[in-house]
């Protein structure tokens, strides 16, 4: 069953007249984007910085309104819903941010950060919230001693785990991950991917995974959509994209993936020289 669907989404931002021009300009951030996400699927959204990935994420979450087009959740068209109407489905759709530390209230403890969505969406009893927070901490691999810590007292990996814990606290169906591993080293990146995979199995989650790194999509994403200048130019399975990309831009992205073996790097350079 389709969990999420985007139909001909467009987002245009107007720019005011400047000092040296009398013409008003506009920027097309998202251009006629259509796709669907099945329940239990992980969709990778790949493209360079500024191609419209994060704008698309905000449209999907209802944080911004599209200039035209529709967004549906389980066949419910929520494109024009108000803030209060969005509360009906807000608990089912959550986000993991690129910079978790910047998304936290620095005056909140870990317990308050994870407990805030629970308090906002119905769990009024402090004791019940505390139990849910403790259970969620265990799910993301953090110890109970961290419950009273402040964000600045945690390592980068721990901060990202708290960000994931906050996103799953309401036990949503859909999580949008906006470049969640870009600030982490290779070891932590693998740990976080393994964690998201485990949570997907345990909680029945679906993901929209935004990244510019094609090296992670093969084993993490069921399908991949490639964005260029606000448009989706190619959509394939993760394995199919790695084996045979159709669009020239996708092939360029694949060629930019670092190769660890120096002998293979030399062969690639020789191939490029011959071509």
From TrEMBL:
Q: What is this protein called?
A: Peptide/nickel transport system ATP-binding protein/oligopeptide transport system ATP-binding protein
The UniProt record lists the ABC transporter domain at 4-254
* One Pfam family this sequence matches: ABC_tran
* Protein family membership: Belongs to the ABC transporter superfamily.
Q: Does the record's keyword annotation contain Nucleotide-binding?
A: yes
Q: Which SUPFAM superfamilies match?
A: P-loop containing nucleoside triphosphate hydrolases (SSF52540)
Which UniProt keyword terms apply here? ATP-binding, Nucleotide-binding, Transport
The organism's taxonomic lineage, starting at the top: Bacteria, Bacillati, Bacillota, Bacilli, Bacillales
MF terms per GO, please?
ATP binding
The record's SMART domains line, in alphabetical order, gives: AAA
* Origin superkingdom: Bacteria
